[in-house]
Amino acid sequence: MFPRKSVRNKDGSRKQEREAVSPRELETVERGAERREATGFSMAYLKSLHRQVAGDSLRRIFKTPFASFLNCLMIAVAFALPAILILLVNNLQTLGHGWEGQPRISLYLESELGRDQINRLRVDARDDPDIEQFLYISPDDGLRDFQERAQMRGVIDALGFNPLPGVLELTPRQGLNTAQLDELMKKYQVKQGVMEARLDQEWIERLQSITQLLERFTVILSGLLGIIVLLTIGNTVRLSVESRRAEIKVIKLVGGTDGFVTLPFLYMGVWYGLGGALLALLIIIAVLMGVMSSVLELASLYGSSFTPEGPGFAMFFSLLAAGVFLGVAGAAVSCYRHIRNIEGQPV
User: Fold this and answer.
1) 3-state DSSP assignment of residue 199
2) What is the chain's pLDDT, residue by residue, as a tens digit (347 residues)?
3) Domain 104-200 sits in CATH 3.30.70.3040
4) CA–CA gap between residue 82 and residue 221 (Å, rounded)
């Protein structure tokens, strides 16, 4: 709408004439009209816009399938490595907790120990309130079990004697902490006829120390690989921005906002992040299938029914959320830097 001014005719009557408008005033009026139209956008229009932009971004990715697949594969490897380490830590913790409830103290007895002395140790263990149950394994029983497990009957026969001592296995009552277990082991270690005492929970403590180290390493590795994902998506988006430089300049000249220009590249980052997360899940499943048979065979050798834990719904949604977040973040940083560089440059 242009302002009008009144002027007089030669006969004294008045008439309305349109004032001349400067280019700056005209631009201000047009921008005001655009703002008034923008305030009238409905949710249906916004949904349609986002749907159209998301579909167009996905089609642009599929136009270069090989390059897009390589980018998604790089992102997938960066996601899969910490995820596999997290599964390893979870399985180690499950294995440790499965044994932590029933630690055992193994008393290795002297070979010259008589039956009366062995019975005395068994009575002491029976009357001890800290001992829940006990089991005596004679040297002959230990040798027989060893031959069945190790398949070394010929070697043992060549020795001509039984090298294994008698073992009294003590199962402490539940609820004892590490210090109390150590005191209980030392109590039986000094008894007459006991050659050596071993607490089976020592390996669990070592296992817990290893898992804590792996947890810290996983956190550090996740941060480093997250930066790699950001750089990968950011570089991919930067190349896409450069390829559409002329289009972006035209959009900026006709009044396109930074948000409107950035939206397609944000969706491109989302698609790359989701694609990398889905490929990472396939890599994790393939790795688990490759090592599952070896893990089950190793567990059977130790008489354990342990089964490795696979990726659950929590890891699935965590990978998808991480893919979307890193994709949007990488695209936003790249767009903010490069789209602003395009402003002010001639078409």
Assistant:
1) strand
2) 444 444 454 455 444 444 444 555 445 435 544 544 544 457 777 788 788 888 888 888 888 889 889 989 999 999 999 888 888 887 776 665 555 446 778 888 887 777 788 788 888 888 888 888 888 887 777 767 766 665 555 555 655 666 677 788 888 877 677 777 788 888 888 888 888 878 776 666 676 778 788 888 888 988 898 898 888 888 888 888 888 878 777 777 777 677 778 888 889 999 999 999 999 999 998 888 887 777 777 666 555 566 777 788 888 898 999 999 999 998 888 887 777 666 555 44
3) yes
4) 7
Order of strands across the sheet with 131-137? 131-137, 167-172, 105-109, 194-199
> What CA–CA distances, in Å, run from 72 to 238, 277, 283, 333?
16, 8, 12, 19
CA dihedral 328, 46, 58, 256 (to 10 degrees): -80
Kindly state the tokens that stand for 281: 């899940």
Question: Residue 91 pairs with which residues in a beta bridge?
Answer: none
Token digits of residue 346: 């001639």
Q: What does each C-alpha distance from 268 to 67, 276, 345 come to in angstroms?
A: 14, 12, 25
Rounded-to-integer distance, Cα 304 and Cα 43, Å: 58
Give the whole-angstrom CA distance, residue 181 versus residue 206. 16
User: Is-contact 295 47, C-beta < 8 A?
Assistant: no
* Burial bucket for residue 243 (CB in 10 Å: 0-12, 13-18, 19+): exposed
Which of 103, 102, 106 is closest to 135 using CA atoms?
106
Tell me the chain's radius of gyration from C-alpha atoms. 37
Residue 270 and residue 324 in contact, taking contact as beta carbons nearer than 8 Å = yes
Return the SS3 of 305. coil
Spans of all domains in the chain: 44-98+205-342, 104-200
Look at the block and give the residue holding tokens 């009008």.
4
Query: Which residues sit opposite 194 in a β-bridge?
Result: 109
